[in-house]
Specification:
alpha/beta; single chain; 15% strand; TIM Barrel; 337 residues; 10 strands; 10 helices
């Protein structure tokens, strides 16, 4: 992902709405790629833009892999590096916000039962911060839709070896973050039914596509997604992250405009997706996420959280507390300040 122009984002400035509301950002990344750097100082600069971000959850992104290790152990380097970066940030700033209080890493679940060794290594490297695994399964038949960085095959979640590896998560008290596209939601529902004792977290409201063969078909996509979300929500072991709708794949094309969107426009676009998730899953199984810096391609951090707050203005104080803070704290078992 190329660096986002801070000058372009600065074309839209807003005062933070309800700046005292405590927030856990349930999903962001850190990386040091040749074409783009986004490390703890960069996230802290975004997070300290006016909202009360208390803690965050880091989610794997193919960064900081170990060299000279067997392939299955290389991802443990990401967990170790993120934990070290987070500890250094805590030491320098007093932990405001506490970045990567929870870490979600990658382990190849297609290893089957042998993945237990990798899970144990992640837990050790995380030194109390490691909470779960994301093995992205986002796949689409169209060449115009980019598949996940894990290069998943079609039907990964039903693969026998994958499920043998997945069975190890509960034994290690780990959750599973699911990154997939909206046509694959029924595959996650089947997985959730098969493993009722494992907590599954659906990332980015289930990845509604708006590019390639899905471009210009938002109504049809929404109708299919709406039905599949309702069925998935019947699985009590599944939670959902509200966010991730500002990616290129969603098809809103905000990144192509002369000015980024403001929070009112973002809220109008996101509300149908978020409202349906909240209605189906309930407040206690929904949490907000920034998905930064990926969503930074379309909007600033401050404006994004303003949009989330606009969507929930009619909610009670307890409901907002759950959505913005408490659900993430409970699901990811974070130590509260």
């Amino acid at each position: 992902m190329p660096a986002t122009s801070e000058d372009w984002l600065a074309l839209v400035r807003e005062d933070p709405i309800d700046p005292a509301l405590p927030i856990i950002d349930a999903h962001h990344h850190l990386w040091d790629h040749p074409d783009h750097r986004y490390l703890t100082a960069d996230f802290a600069a975004d997070a300290n833009s006016g909202h009360n971000i208390r803690q965050s959850v880091f989610v794997e992104c193919l960064a900081f892999y170990r060299k000279g290790e067997p392939a299955h152990l290389k991802p443990v380097g990401e967990t170790q590096a993120i934990r070290e970066l987070a500890e250094a940030h805590d030491g320098d700033t007093g932990g405001q916000p506490k970045i990567a209080a929870g870490i979600v890493g990658f382990a190849d679940l297609e290893l089957g039962a042998a993945v237990s060794t990798v899970l144990a290594a992640h837990i050790e490297a995380g030194a109390g911060r490691f909470r779960g695994i994301r093995h992205a399964s986002s796949w689409d038949a169209s060449s115009k839709v980019r598949n996940a960085h894990t290069n998943p095959p079609e039907g990964l979640l039903a693969d026998a070896s994958f499920r043998q590896g997945f069975a190890c998560l509960a034994r290690h008290d780990l959750s599973f973050d699911a990154w997939l596209y909206h046509p694959q939601i029924p595959e996650l529902t089947a997985l959730a039914h098969a493993f009722p004792d494992t907590v599954l977290i659906l990332d980015h409201v289930g990845g509604p596509l708006g590019i390639g063969p899905y471009a210009g078909k938002r109504d049809q996509v929404f109708a299919r997604w709406k039905s599949d979300i309702a069925e998935l929500a019947r699985c009590s072991n599944v939670c959902v992250k509200l966010g991730g709708i500002a990616m290129k794949m969603n098809g809103y094309d905000w990144h192509r405009r002369d000015k980024p969107p403001g929070s009112i426009e973002l809220a109008d676009a996101a509300a149908p997706w978020f409202d349906h998730c909240i209605e189906q899953f309930g407040i206690q199984r929904c949490m907000f996420e920034s998905n930064f810096p990926v969503d930074k391609l379309s909007c600033s951090y401050n404006v994004l959280w303003n949009a989330f707050k606009r969507i929930t203005q009619g909610f009670s104080a307890d409901e907002r507390s759950a959505l913005f803070h408490d659900t993430a704290a409970r699901v990811y078992r974070l130590d509260l300040p």
